[in-house]
Amino acid sequence: MNTFNISVRQYGVHAVLVEWPNQVEESILDDILQFIKYLKNHKLDEKEWEFIPSYNSLTLICKDKVLDFDVLKPQIKDWYSLKGEIKGVTRYVWTLPVCYDQEFGLDLEEASSFLGLTTEKLITMHTQQAYTVYCIGFLPGFMYLGGVPKELEVARKPNPRPKVLKGSVGLAGKQTGIYPQDSPGGWNIIGKCPVPMFDVKKENPCFVSVGDKIKFKPISKAEYELHKIEAEVGIYNIEKSVWDA
């Protein structure tokens, strides 16, 4: 069982921020997810609280009342010491199609050249990994995916684009991700995914959760156009399996 030194600090009048060691590690993320499950099962009502995990922190937001931080801080530390090892924290692997066609991979050749790789090798390496969802933010449904191999680490673009198209797949430093909507952005765009990452009309607008895994599957431009239509009419079935860590 992993236990860490955590800190708890006030985050406005309705929230607290619980922080683990300042490291990006699967073991820390696992511990955060286990603590969330413990809190939901034993201490905090999901109807009254919101739980936001990210990298090495957990934000707890009380929806309808001002918190007494002096009371809550020692409670949280006590709860963490009592949680033990929680079984049954289910994490999924989602396999998402990506077209790396030159039309979509605006920075594919430049990034490949910088890394000393052929575009084919970059695509192969990018699709061989299972990436961990460490955070969802910046935009609704924007997944910060960790686990990029060192051979694919490339710096953000010095001048961000004023508009990156929805579905664009980017690389930046140790992370990769998919833009869930049109927005400014400075990541290196290497492909495009036809599956929407966020749909406000659905009961669960973002189907992916922090702690899940993402794998990318290369597809042709023709397949991209087909899957885009399937996704728009709601008949595209995303490949999903349980992650067996």
Automatic annotation (TrEMBL):
Residues 6-208 form the Carboxyltransferase domain. Its EC number is 3.5.2.9. Gene3D superfamilies: 3.30.1360.40, Cyclophilin-like (2.40.100.10). It comes from the Bacteria. It is an enzyme of class 3 (hydrolase). One of its GO terms (molecular function) is ATP binding. Keywords: ATP-binding, Hydrolase, Nucleotide-binding. NCBIfam families: 5-oxoprolinase subunit PxpB. This is 5-oxoprolinase subunit PxpB. It comes from Arenibacter aquaticus.
